[in-house]
Structure of S1 motif domain-containing protein:
Amino acid sequence: MGGLPEHPELWAFLEALARGEALSGTVAAIERFGVFVALDHGPAHPLFPGVGFITYPELAWQRFVKASGVVQVGQRVTCEFLQFDTGNLEARLSLRAMQPDPFQEFADRAAVGRNCAAR
């Protein structure tokens, strides 16, 4: 991709995003490598179904077999902006960052020296 000269509106949008910012949009496509999100206030992407992209590890805290077990095409989502992928001109997003962290919840409940049952 040529970057700034070819897609100035897209570059300007992505460069204006701040890490940790909440972005809303609609799941545009589910692929074997991740989920594309058409962002509400973002421009169209020249190649992909959406400017936002969620990798599988960023979809949920719980285990899942298929992304369709977590999200569906057409579903509204709010994600946290992680970074600007300059190679693909994408906003890398995290859906799981918007959910409570189960590890932090455990740490809040656990006490030093306490025995815990495990599987």
Observations:
- The helical segments are 8-15, 102-109.
- The chain is about 15% helix and 30% strand.
